[in-house]
């Protein structure tokens, strides 16, 4: 007699919510003293954004946030993750602070709390001040030097009302995709060494944000990173393929997760980098590996992995329109990728 499938359910303390990012929804791209971001500049380059859309108005959340929060309450939303726009606080990335920008986020948090919505704040979601990019951006430590005063100011201002903090969102997207493949802001195509250095500088900023929350967040403050790590799916549920999937996960995510949680870059990662390894200064590894309270995972899709020769992990692709064998109680399906990069996959009949 076959066993009934085990039903899975979310734990009682699971937190449901919704999320946005400042450049996606705020609009008011140059209002009340806000400076230009790399995405403001990138979106104005012909062909970079579908339809030539810009961040100038977006959803106009900057002006409609009270109405938006009323709608969210009516929908039953209890938790809301949003990001703070760095160039709204420091228009040049560093230097003079824009008090109007800080005041806006104070009003924003007060308004959502009034509707019974708990804030979860992301300190950086891709919108680097363009003035910092002009000085080297994530390629140089100038970003770390500017990021400290920015996160200190935000956490000091909101820490009495915000207890859930996210340091950075999806390091891969604003480093490798922004400086390597060029399809995200700032749209550059740099060498492997430069890309590895942008990752390292991002990790340092993560550590600096953790430091800010510990110093200014007050009691019960929690902080962690949100990462879109690569996710392996073993092609079969055999010991060999499961072990290969685990090894593949470690190999693919060594650049971010390993240093954060071990305080070092793995020897295997450094060997793969060779002369392109990131330059690490004294104290860097201690800063970027400061203890956190959680790890956020943005999971879009998985890569099918199998054990190759000698057990080494190998990713594999289904041939186009491959139909899976029909399992008992399931419809047959075929795989399709959405988007040119295949960042999301679905299975349709």
Describe the 3D structure.
It is a single chain. The chain has 349 residues and is an alpha/beta fold. The protein has two domains: 18-234 and 249-299, Alpha-Beta Barrel (TIM Barrel), CATH 3.20.20; 320-349, no CATH class. Helices cover 38% and strands 14% of the residues. It contains 14 helices and eleven strands. The chain has a six-stranded parallel β-sheet with strand order 1-2-3-4-5-7. The radius of gyration is 22 Å and the shape is globular. It starts with 17 loop residues before the first strand and ends with a strand. 34% of the residues are buried.
- The CATH superfamily of the largest domain bears the name Glycosidases
- In one word, what is the shape? globular
Strand order of the largest sheet: 1-2-3-4-5-7
**CATH architecture identity of the largest domain:** Alpha-Beta Barrel
Radius of gyration: 22 Å
CATH class of the largest domain: Alpha Beta
Q: N-to-C SSE series?
A: EHHHEHHEHHEHHHEEHHHHEEEEE
User: Which fold does the CATH topology of the largest domain refer to?
Assistant: TIM Barrel
Number of helices: 14
- The residue fraction in helices comes out at 25-40%
β-strand number = 11
* Sheet of most strands: 6 strands, parallel
- Number of structural units classed as domains: 2
Structural class: alpha/beta
Q: Which percent range describes the beta-strand content?
A: 5-15%
Rounded mean pLDDT score: 91
Please give the alpha-carbon distance between the first and last residues: 29 Å
Poorly predicted residue ranges: 324-341
């Amino acid at each position: 007699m076959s066993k009934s499938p085990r039903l899975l359910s979310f734990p009682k303390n699971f937190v449901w919510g919704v999320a946005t990012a400042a450049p996606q929804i705020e609009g008011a791209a140059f209002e009340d003293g806000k400076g230009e971001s790399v995405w403001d500049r990138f979106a104005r380059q012909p062909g970079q954004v579908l339809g030539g859309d810009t961040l100038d108005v977006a959803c106009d959340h900057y002006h409609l946030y009270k109405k938006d929060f009323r709608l969210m309450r009516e929908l039953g939303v209890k938790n809301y993750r949003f990001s703070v726009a760095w160039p709204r606080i420091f228009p040049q990335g560093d230097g003079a602070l824009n008090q109007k920008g800080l005041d806006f986020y104070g009003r924003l948090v007060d308004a959502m709390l009034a509707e019974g919505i708990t804030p979860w704040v992301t300190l950086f979601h891709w919108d680097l001040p363009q003035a910092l990019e002009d000085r080297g951006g994530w390629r140089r430590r100038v970003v770390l030097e500017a990021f400290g005063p920015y996160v200190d100011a935000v956490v000091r201002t909101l820490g009495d009302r915000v207890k859930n903090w996210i340091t950075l969102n999806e390091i891969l997207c604003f480093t490798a995709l922004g400086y390597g493949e060029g399809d995200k802001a700032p749209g550059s195509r740099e060498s492997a060494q430069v890309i590895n250095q942008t990752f390292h500088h991002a990790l340092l900023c993560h550590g600096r944000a953790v430091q800010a929350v510990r110093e200014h967040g007050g009691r019960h403050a929690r902080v962690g990173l949100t990462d879109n790590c690569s996710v392996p799916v073993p092609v079969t549920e055999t010991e060999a393929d499961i072990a290969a999937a685990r090894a593949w996960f470690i190999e693919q995510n060594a650049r971010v997760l390993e240093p954060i949680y071990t305080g070092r870059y793995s020897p295997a990662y450094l060997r793969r980098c060779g002369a392109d390894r990131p330059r690490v200064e004294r104290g860097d590894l201690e800063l970027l590996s400061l203890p956190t309270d959680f790890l956020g995972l943005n999971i879009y899709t998985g890569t099918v992995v199998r054990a190759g020769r000698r057990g080494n992990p190998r990713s594999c692709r289904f041939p186009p329109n491959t139909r899976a064998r029909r399992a008992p109680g399931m419809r047959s399906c075929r795989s399709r990728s959405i988007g040119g990069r295949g960042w999301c996959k679905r299975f349709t009949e």
